[in-house]
Amino acid sequence: MKFSYKGVEEASNQVVEGELDAVSQQEAMRVLAERRIEVFQLQQAQQYAQKGRKVKTADLVLPLQELATLTSSGVTLIDAIKALSNNDEHPQMAKGFAVIASHIESGESFSAAIVESGLPFPVYVGHLVSAGELGGELAQALQKAAQQLEYEQSVKGDMRSALTYPLVLIGSGIAAMLIIFFAVVPKFSHMLDDGKELPALAWAVLSAGKTVNQSPLLVATVIAAALLTIIAIFLNQSVQRKLMDTAIEMPVIGPWLAEQDAARWASLCAAMLLARVNLVSALRLAAQSCEFSKRRKRADTMVLDVESGVSFTEALTRSQLVPETSLNLVAVGDKTGQLADMLNAVAKLHDTACKRRMKQVLTLMEPIAILIVGIMIGVMILGIVLAITASTDIAI
């Protein structure tokens, strides 16, 4: 980051000012002292203090991969982090890595500096890095952290992709319905004043269309308020948890979400064990990755079973976190000392099964979305047709 300074140059005894690059204020002071400048004002340069976009967890995949590559190539950790702190395209991320560099230079460990950086690293990243520091395999630990983070982001991306098309279809249907309300229904609303008795559906459609056209601002306000309320509800963490817990109990969708959660749990367990994190800590962190209340409780119970002396295979069988077909692989890995590799294989199997189930969900959701759109538009058209036939005494 850039610092602006003012001070007195000892050689000339004159006031000097300027800017310099440093990862922390302490380093800036040290550099200026080496230049024999007695500083009386030092602050971050205005251009660096500007706020950039907020750092998201997905943004951290590439920096972790870069750190792994640099450290495995022989670049010192502090130099690698300083290189990432010079990211002008993402000031907030650069600021976070500058904080990490500052903490490391002050004597803290890399894992502790990550926690205090303010960057949205998942909890397991700090544990993987700590294990890598203790085992002298920091580059490998960083690579595993990057791979796990990338995997989790790809899972979220798959879920968003699966839901995008049905939501677009339903949104298009709502837009078409509003167009009919504003452009078509008003041409028939005079039938309400003709004195003829209309079928209930025809009356409801024409009355709604008349109200929409007479008070468009009020209707727009109500729709906007309803949308904001729905968004606020869905952004609520407790509501999200309840929705997820409900979804996993549903047919078709439930098995897909269960496969996805099982793959994530096994993948994180494997990554932690390969980084030589102790088994109980690995299980605790993997339990935190479970997005569904029932599965999280089962994972927590499994931790307690392992702590009480139950074997990993037996505890996993009791918890039912993975299907029975995967238990044989885990049992073999537990007996042969290759548990991490087998869990990694289980994660890949469930990831493949998850993608297959996602296609099944999409196959079901697309016609449902089309059906919903057809019903919404069909009801309106039927209401208009019933109004026309009622006013002209045509029997249908």
TrEMBL record:
Keyword check for Calcium, yes or no.
no
Q: Which GO terms describe its cellular component?
A: plasma membrane
Q: Where in the cell is it found?
A: Cell membrane
Superkingdom as given in the UniProt entry: Bacteria
Name a Pfam family for this protein: T2SSF
* UniProt main location, coarse: membrane
User: Which residue ranges does the record assign to the Type II secretion system protein GspF domain?
Assistant: 64-186, 266-386
Annotated membrane topology: Multi-pass membrane protein
Keyword list (alphabetical) reads: Cell membrane, Membrane, Transmembrane, Transmembrane helix
Record GO biological process: protein secretion by the type II secretion system
Keyword check for Transmembrane: yes
| Bilayer-crossing regions | 163-185, 217-235, 368-390
What family does the entry list? Belongs to the GSP F family.
Name-wise, this protein is Type II secretion system F family protein
